[in-house]
Design goal:
The chain is of the alpha/beta class and 366 residues long. It has helices spanning 13-25, 34-47, 80-91, 95-103, 122-125, 144-163, 179-190, 194-197, 206-224, 230-237, 240-254, 264-276, 293-302, 318-336, 340-343, and strands spanning 58-65, 106-113, 168-174, 259-261, 284-286. The protein has a five-stranded parallel beta sheet with strand order 2-1-3-4-5, sandwiched between helices. The two termini are 32 Å apart. It binds nicotinate mononucleotide (NCN) and 5,6-dimethylbenzimidazole. Nicotinate mononucleotide binds next to strand 3, helix 7 and helix 12. It catalyses: 5,6-dimethylbenzimidazole + nicotinate beta-D-ribonucleotide = alpha-ribazole 5'-phosphate + nicotinate + H(+).
Protein backbone atom coordinates (compact mmCIF):
# COMPACT_ATOMS: atom_id res chain seq x y z
CA UNK A 1 0.00 0.00 0.00
CA UNK A 2 1.37 3.41 -0.88
CA UNK A 3 1.85 6.42 1.37
CA UNK A 4 -0.47 8.45 -0.91
CA UNK A 5 -3.97 9.00 0.44
CA UNK A 6 -6.97 9.59 -1.81
CA UNK A 7 -9.03 12.78 -1.74
CA UNK A 8 -10.89 13.01 1.58
CA UNK A 9 -14.65 13.55 1.29
CA UNK A 10 -16.38 15.87 3.78
CA UNK A 11 -19.10 14.61 6.11
CA UNK A 12 -22.42 14.86 4.26
CA UNK A 13 -23.58 18.48 4.01
CA UNK A 14 -27.25 17.67 3.30
CA UNK A 15 -27.43 15.35 6.32
CA UNK A 16 -25.72 18.06 8.38
CA UNK A 17 -28.51 20.49 7.45
CA UNK A 18 -31.21 17.88 8.12
CA UNK A 19 -29.75 17.17 11.57
CA UNK A 20 -29.63 20.88 12.43
CA UNK A 21 -33.24 21.19 11.32
CA UNK A 22 -34.22 18.17 13.39
CA UNK A 23 -32.65 19.70 16.48
CA UNK A 24 -35.05 22.63 16.09
CA UNK A 25 -37.99 20.20 16.15
CA UNK A 26 -36.98 18.48 19.39
CA UNK A 27 -38.70 19.27 22.67
CA UNK A 28 -36.27 21.85 24.07
CA UNK A 29 -35.50 25.49 23.43
CA UNK A 30 -33.38 25.74 20.25
CA UNK A 31 -29.67 25.43 21.06
CA UNK A 32 -30.29 24.61 24.71
CA UNK A 33 -28.15 21.46 24.63
CA UNK A 34 -25.25 23.68 23.67
CA UNK A 35 -22.26 21.96 22.13
CA UNK A 36 -23.91 18.54 22.51
CA UNK A 37 -26.16 19.62 19.65
CA UNK A 38 -23.27 20.22 17.27
CA UNK A 39 -21.68 16.92 18.28
CA UNK A 40 -24.84 15.01 17.39
CA UNK A 41 -25.11 16.90 14.11
CA UNK A 42 -21.50 15.99 13.31
CA UNK A 43 -22.10 12.27 14.01
CA UNK A 44 -25.18 12.41 11.83
CA UNK A 45 -23.25 14.06 8.97
CA UNK A 46 -20.43 11.50 9.32
CA UNK A 47 -22.95 8.66 9.09
CA UNK A 48 -24.82 10.37 6.25
CA UNK A 49 -27.96 9.52 8.17
CA UNK A 50 -30.48 11.63 10.10
CA UNK A 51 -31.40 10.74 12.75
CA UNK A 52 -28.01 9.18 13.53
CA UNK A 53 -27.59 5.57 14.65
CA UNK A 54 -26.29 4.97 18.18
CA UNK A 55 -22.74 3.64 18.09
CA UNK A 56 -22.73 -0.15 17.76
CA UNK A 57 -19.00 -0.75 18.01
CA UNK A 58 -16.82 2.05 19.40
CA UNK A 59 -13.26 0.77 19.24
CA UNK A 60 -9.94 1.77 20.78
CA UNK A 61 -6.77 0.77 18.94
CA UNK A 62 -3.82 1.13 21.30
CA UNK A 63 -0.55 1.82 19.48
CA UNK A 64 2.43 0.71 21.58
CA UNK A 65 6.06 1.43 20.85
CA UNK A 66 9.37 2.40 22.38
CA UNK A 67 11.50 5.42 21.59
CA UNK A 68 15.27 5.56 21.25
CA UNK A 69 15.29 9.08 22.68
CA UNK A 70 14.69 7.57 26.14
CA UNK A 71 18.47 6.85 26.20
CA UNK A 72 18.95 10.62 26.64
CA UNK A 73 17.01 10.60 29.93
CA UNK A 74 13.80 12.40 28.90
CA UNK A 75 11.18 10.48 30.91
CA UNK A 76 10.35 9.91 34.57
CA UNK A 77 9.94 6.18 33.88
CA UNK A 78 12.26 3.51 32.42
CA UNK A 79 11.57 2.27 28.87
CA UNK A 80 10.75 -1.25 30.10
CA UNK A 81 7.44 0.14 31.42
CA UNK A 82 6.08 0.20 27.84
CA UNK A 83 6.25 -3.60 27.53
CA UNK A 84 5.06 -4.06 31.09
CA UNK A 85 2.03 -1.88 30.40
CA UNK A 86 1.26 -3.84 27.22
CA UNK A 87 1.00 -6.92 29.44
CA UNK A 88 -1.25 -4.92 31.78
CA UNK A 89 -3.51 -3.85 28.87
CA UNK A 90 -3.78 -7.49 27.77
CA UNK A 91 -4.64 -8.54 31.32
CA UNK A 92 -7.34 -5.83 31.49
CA UNK A 93 -5.83 -3.92 34.41
CA UNK A 94 -5.07 -0.50 32.93
CA UNK A 95 -7.11 2.71 33.00
CA UNK A 96 -8.02 2.23 29.34
CA UNK A 97 -9.57 -1.16 30.06
CA UNK A 98 -11.76 0.14 32.87
CA UNK A 99 -12.78 3.30 31.06
CA UNK A 100 -13.53 1.46 27.82
CA UNK A 101 -15.71 -0.97 29.73
CA UNK A 102 -17.65 1.90 31.34
CA UNK A 103 -18.04 3.72 28.01
CA UNK A 104 -19.06 0.59 26.06
CA UNK A 105 -15.95 0.42 23.88
CA UNK A 106 -13.60 -2.47 23.18
CA UNK A 107 -9.81 -2.31 23.08
CA UNK A 108 -7.28 -3.76 20.65
CA UNK A 109 -3.59 -3.62 21.59
CA UNK A 110 -1.03 -3.40 18.77
CA UNK A 111 2.75 -3.58 19.21
CA UNK A 112 4.38 -1.45 16.52
CA UNK A 113 7.76 -1.03 18.19
CA UNK A 114 7.93 -2.26 21.77
CA UNK A 115 11.47 -3.04 22.91
CA UNK A 116 10.77 -6.27 24.74
CA UNK A 117 11.86 -9.90 24.81
CA UNK A 118 8.45 -10.94 26.13
CA UNK A 119 6.46 -13.33 23.96
CA UNK A 120 3.36 -11.40 22.93
CA UNK A 121 0.39 -12.99 21.14
CA UNK A 122 0.49 -12.99 17.33
CA UNK A 123 -2.58 -10.74 17.14
CA UNK A 124 -0.62 -8.09 19.05
CA UNK A 125 2.64 -8.30 17.06
CA UNK A 126 1.21 -8.93 13.58
CA UNK A 127 1.96 -5.33 12.54
CA UNK A 128 5.30 -4.96 14.37
CA UNK A 129 7.82 -2.79 12.51
CA UNK A 130 10.91 -2.97 14.74
CA UNK A 131 12.05 -2.67 18.33
CA UNK A 132 12.22 0.97 19.53
CA UNK A 133 13.35 3.78 17.19
CA UNK A 134 16.44 5.87 16.48
CA UNK A 135 17.39 8.57 18.99
CA UNK A 136 15.84 11.47 17.07
CA UNK A 137 18.18 14.15 18.41
CA UNK A 138 21.02 12.55 16.38
CA UNK A 139 19.59 10.01 13.92
CA UNK A 140 16.41 9.23 12.03
CA UNK A 141 13.68 7.43 13.94
CA UNK A 142 13.07 4.96 11.11
CA UNK A 143 14.39 3.88 7.72
CA UNK A 144 12.44 4.65 4.54
CA UNK A 145 11.21 1.06 4.41
CA UNK A 146 10.14 1.14 8.07
CA UNK A 147 8.15 4.37 7.77
CA UNK A 148 6.38 3.03 4.68
CA UNK A 149 5.59 -0.21 6.52
CA UNK A 150 4.31 1.70 9.57
CA UNK A 151 1.99 3.80 7.38
CA UNK A 152 0.74 0.66 5.66
CA UNK A 153 0.13 -0.90 9.09
CA UNK A 154 -1.90 2.09 10.29
CA UNK A 155 -4.02 2.05 7.15
CA UNK A 156 -4.55 -1.70 7.40
CA UNK A 157 -5.59 -1.37 11.04
CA UNK A 158 -8.22 1.26 10.23
CA UNK A 159 -9.49 -0.88 7.35
CA UNK A 160 -9.63 -3.98 9.52
CA UNK A 161 -11.56 -2.15 12.22
CA UNK A 162 -14.06 -0.49 9.87
CA UNK A 163 -14.54 -3.77 7.98
CA UNK A 164 -15.09 -5.41 11.38
CA UNK A 165 -17.95 -3.02 12.12
CA UNK A 166 -16.28 -0.23 14.11
CA UNK A 167 -18.40 2.92 13.79
CA UNK A 168 -16.37 5.19 16.08
CA UNK A 169 -12.60 4.95 16.29
CA UNK A 170 -10.20 6.03 19.03
CA UNK A 171 -6.42 5.88 18.71
CA UNK A 172 -4.73 5.35 22.05
CA UNK A 173 -1.00 5.10 22.64
CA UNK A 174 1.56 3.82 25.13
CA UNK A 175 5.27 4.49 24.87
CA UNK A 176 7.71 5.75 27.43
CA UNK A 177 9.43 8.81 25.93
CA UNK A 178 6.79 9.44 23.27
CA UNK A 179 5.98 13.00 24.37
CA UNK A 180 9.44 13.95 23.04
CA UNK A 181 8.83 13.02 19.37
CA UNK A 182 5.29 14.37 19.77
CA UNK A 183 6.72 17.73 20.86
CA UNK A 184 9.15 17.77 17.93
CA UNK A 185 6.46 16.96 15.35
CA UNK A 186 4.14 19.61 16.76
CA UNK A 187 6.89 22.24 16.86
CA UNK A 188 7.91 21.39 13.29
CA UNK A 189 4.34 21.66 11.97
CA UNK A 190 3.27 24.70 13.99
CA UNK A 191 6.51 26.68 13.69
CA UNK A 192 6.94 26.73 17.48
CA UNK A 193 10.06 26.91 19.63
CA UNK A 194 11.13 24.04 21.94
CA UNK A 195 10.12 25.85 25.16
CA UNK A 196 6.56 26.12 23.86
CA UNK A 197 6.19 22.37 23.32
CA UNK A 198 8.23 20.67 26.06
CA UNK A 199 5.99 19.51 28.87
CA UNK A 200 6.28 17.33 31.95
CA UNK A 201 5.18 14.09 30.25
CA UNK A 202 4.93 11.34 32.85
CA UNK A 203 5.93 13.87 35.55
CA UNK A 204 9.57 14.85 34.97
CA UNK A 205 11.63 17.06 37.29
CA UNK A 206 13.41 20.25 36.23
CA UNK A 207 16.70 18.52 35.37
CA UNK A 208 14.95 15.99 33.16
CA UNK A 209 12.96 18.83 31.57
CA UNK A 210 16.25 20.53 30.63
CA UNK A 211 17.54 17.32 29.00
CA UNK A 212 14.24 16.91 27.18
CA UNK A 213 14.35 20.52 25.94
CA UNK A 214 17.87 19.93 24.59
CA UNK A 215 16.75 16.74 22.87
CA UNK A 216 13.76 18.52 21.34
CA UNK A 217 15.97 21.39 20.18
CA UNK A 218 18.41 19.03 18.46
CA UNK A 219 15.69 16.84 16.95
CA UNK A 220 13.82 19.91 15.73
CA UNK A 221 16.90 21.11 13.89
CA UNK A 222 16.84 17.84 11.92
CA UNK A 223 13.05 17.80 11.56
CA UNK A 224 12.63 21.33 10.21
CA UNK A 225 14.49 20.35 7.02
CA UNK A 226 11.71 17.91 6.13
CA UNK A 227 8.69 19.57 7.75
CA UNK A 228 7.01 20.10 4.35
CA UNK A 229 7.09 16.34 3.72
CA UNK A 230 4.95 14.40 6.21
CA UNK A 231 6.36 10.95 5.44
CA UNK A 232 9.94 12.20 5.72
CA UNK A 233 9.00 14.01 8.92
CA UNK A 234 7.68 10.78 10.45
CA UNK A 235 10.84 8.96 9.36
CA UNK A 236 13.09 11.67 10.83
CA UNK A 237 11.34 12.59 14.07
CA UNK A 238 8.47 10.16 14.60
CA UNK A 239 8.43 6.44 15.36
CA UNK A 240 6.65 3.32 14.14
CA UNK A 241 3.73 3.81 16.54
CA UNK A 242 3.25 7.51 15.73
CA UNK A 243 3.55 6.92 11.97
CA UNK A 244 1.01 4.11 12.14
CA UNK A 245 -1.31 6.27 14.22
CA UNK A 246 -1.11 9.13 11.70
CA UNK A 247 -2.01 6.74 8.89
CA UNK A 248 -4.81 5.21 10.99
CA UNK A 249 -6.36 8.65 11.58
CA UNK A 250 -6.10 9.54 7.89
CA UNK A 251 -7.53 6.18 6.79
CA UNK A 252 -10.45 6.54 9.23
CA UNK A 253 -11.38 9.65 7.22
CA UNK A 254 -10.96 7.78 3.94
CA UNK A 255 -13.40 5.23 5.36
CA UNK A 256 -15.80 7.99 6.50
CA UNK A 257 -15.57 6.88 10.11
CA UNK A 258 -15.68 9.42 12.95
CA UNK A 259 -12.78 9.62 15.39
CA UNK A 260 -12.43 10.97 18.92
CA UNK A 261 -8.90 12.29 19.40
CA UNK A 262 -7.07 11.77 22.69
CA UNK A 263 -4.11 13.79 24.02
CA UNK A 264 -0.81 15.26 22.90
CA UNK A 265 0.76 12.19 21.25
CA UNK A 266 -2.36 11.37 19.27
CA UNK A 267 -2.54 15.10 18.55
CA UNK A 268 0.95 15.05 17.04
CA UNK A 269 -0.08 12.10 14.84
CA UNK A 270 -3.26 13.98 13.89
CA UNK A 271 -1.30 17.05 12.78
CA UNK A 272 0.80 14.86 10.50
CA UNK A 273 -2.30 13.01 9.30
CA UNK A 274 -3.89 16.28 8.21
CA UNK A 275 -0.75 16.88 6.11
CA UNK A 276 -0.92 13.36 4.66
CA UNK A 277 -4.63 13.63 3.89
CA UNK A 278 -5.89 17.24 3.91
CA UNK A 279 -9.46 17.43 5.16
CA UNK A 280 -9.17 14.34 7.35
CA UNK A 281 -9.71 16.50 10.44
CA UNK A 282 -13.35 17.01 9.41
CA UNK A 283 -13.84 13.41 10.60
CA UNK A 284 -12.31 14.06 14.04
CA UNK A 285 -13.40 15.73 17.25
CA UNK A 286 -11.05 16.60 20.10
CA UNK A 287 -12.17 14.70 23.18
CA UNK A 288 -10.12 16.70 25.65
CA UNK A 289 -7.33 19.16 26.23
CA UNK A 290 -4.26 17.56 27.77
CA UNK A 291 -2.12 19.48 30.26
CA UNK A 292 0.82 19.10 27.84
CA UNK A 293 1.45 22.59 26.41
CA UNK A 294 1.95 21.31 22.85
CA UNK A 295 -1.58 19.94 22.79
CA UNK A 296 -3.05 23.46 22.76
CA UNK A 297 -1.03 24.14 19.60
CA UNK A 298 -2.51 21.04 17.96
CA UNK A 299 -6.06 22.03 18.82
CA UNK A 300 -5.52 25.56 17.56
CA UNK A 301 -3.91 24.42 14.33
CA UNK A 302 -6.65 21.87 13.62
CA UNK A 303 -9.34 24.34 14.73
CA UNK A 304 -10.79 21.82 17.17
CA UNK A 305 -12.52 22.71 20.45
CA UNK A 306 -11.97 20.05 23.13
CA UNK A 307 -15.08 18.51 24.65
CA UNK A 308 -13.46 18.14 28.09
CA UNK A 309 -10.69 19.85 30.03
CA UNK A 310 -9.99 17.54 32.98
CA UNK A 311 -6.21 17.99 33.44
CA UNK A 312 -5.63 14.51 31.99
CA UNK A 313 -2.14 13.45 30.88
CA UNK A 314 -2.28 9.68 30.76
CA UNK A 315 -2.71 8.80 27.09
CA UNK A 316 -3.91 5.23 26.28
CA UNK A 317 -7.02 6.81 24.72
CA UNK A 318 -8.38 7.61 28.18
CA UNK A 319 -9.32 11.21 27.37
CA UNK A 320 -11.28 10.04 24.35
CA UNK A 321 -13.02 7.41 26.47
CA UNK A 322 -13.94 10.04 29.06
CA UNK A 323 -15.72 11.99 26.29
CA UNK A 324 -17.32 8.99 24.57
CA UNK A 325 -20.41 8.87 26.84
CA UNK A 326 -21.08 12.51 25.96
CA UNK A 327 -20.75 11.78 22.25
CA UNK A 328 -23.10 8.81 22.66
CA UNK A 329 -25.59 11.04 24.47
CA UNK A 330 -25.34 13.69 21.79
CA UNK A 331 -26.07 11.02 19.17
CA UNK A 332 -28.98 9.43 20.99
CA UNK A 333 -30.59 12.74 21.95
CA UNK A 334 -30.78 13.65 18.28
CA UNK A 335 -32.09 10.19 17.41
CA UNK A 336 -34.48 9.49 20.26
CA UNK A 337 -35.99 12.70 21.68
CA UNK A 338 -39.60 13.47 20.80
CA UNK A 339 -40.43 16.32 18.48
CA UNK A 340 -42.79 19.15 19.52
CA UNK A 341 -45.35 17.71 17.08
CA UNK A 342 -45.09 14.11 18.37
CA UNK A 343 -45.25 15.11 22.04
CA UNK A 344 -47.93 17.78 21.66
CA UNK A 345 -45.69 20.44 23.18
CA UNK A 346 -46.21 24.04 22.07
CA UNK A 347 -43.33 25.66 20.24
CA UNK A 348 -42.01 29.04 21.40
CA UNK A 349 -41.45 32.17 19.41
CA UNK A 350 -37.69 31.86 19.09
CA UNK A 351 -37.04 33.14 15.59
CA UNK A 352 -33.39 34.05 15.61
CA UNK A 353 -31.61 34.90 12.40
CA UNK A 354 -28.99 32.27 11.61
CA UNK A 355 -26.15 34.69 12.37
CA UNK A 356 -27.16 35.22 16.01
CA UNK A 357 -25.54 32.85 18.45
CA UNK A 358 -27.82 32.70 21.44
CA UNK A 359 -25.14 30.88 23.47
CA UNK A 360 -22.86 33.89 23.18
CA UNK A 361 -20.14 32.19 21.22
CA UNK A 362 -18.13 34.06 18.71
CA UNK A 363 -18.41 32.21 15.43
CA UNK A 364 -18.65 28.50 14.87
CA UNK A 365 -16.70 25.78 16.60
CA UNK A 366 -15.98 22.15 16.04
O1 LIG B 1 -1.96 11.98 26.19
C1 LIG B 1 -1.27 12.86 26.73
O2 LIG B 1 -1.54 14.07 26.58
C2 LIG B 1 -0.07 12.42 27.54
C3 LIG B 1 0.62 13.38 28.25
C4 LIG B 1 1.71 12.96 29.01
C5 LIG B 1 2.09 11.61 29.02
N1 LIG B 1 1.40 10.71 28.29
C6 LIG B 1 1.77 9.28 28.32
O3 LIG B 1 3.01 9.13 29.01
C7 LIG B 1 3.96 8.45 28.22
C8 LIG B 1 4.97 9.41 27.68
O4 LIG B 1 5.49 10.28 28.66
P1 LIG B 1 7.07 10.53 28.69
O5 LIG B 1 7.29 11.45 29.87
O6 LIG B 1 7.69 9.18 28.93
O7 LIG B 1 7.42 11.13 27.39
C9 LIG B 1 3.22 7.81 27.09
O8 LIG B 1 2.94 6.46 27.40
C10 LIG B 1 1.95 8.63 26.97
O9 LIG B 1 0.85 7.82 26.70
C11 LIG B 1 0.32 11.09 27.57
C1 LIG C 1 2.54 3.45 34.43
C2 LIG C 1 2.31 4.22 33.14
C3 LIG C 1 1.14 3.99 32.40
C4 LIG C 1 0.94 4.71 31.21
N1 LIG C 1 -0.05 4.71 30.31
C5 LIG C 1 0.27 5.56 29.33
N2 LIG C 1 1.43 6.09 29.60
C6 LIG C 1 1.91 5.60 30.75
C7 LIG C 1 3.07 5.82 31.47
C8 LIG C 1 3.27 5.14 32.67
C9 LIG C 1 4.52 5.38 33.44
Amino acid sequence: MSTEFPHIPTPDAATHRAAEARHLELTKPPGSLGRLEELGVWVSACQGQCPPRPFARPRVVLFAGDHGITAQGVSAFPAEVTGQMVANFLAGGAAVNVMASVAGATVRVVDLGVDTDAELPEHVTAHKIRRSSGSIDREDALTDAEVDAAIAAGRALADEEVDGGADLLIAGEMGIGNTTPAAVLIAALSGSEPVAVVGRGTGIDDQTWMRKATAVRDALRRARRVSAHPVALLRTAGSADIAAMAAFLAQAAVRKTPVLLDGVVVGAAALVAEELAPGASEWWRAAHKSVEPAHALVLEQLNLTPILDLDLRLGEGTGALAALPLLSMATRVLGEMSTFADAGVSEGEVRLPATVDVNGRNGGWR
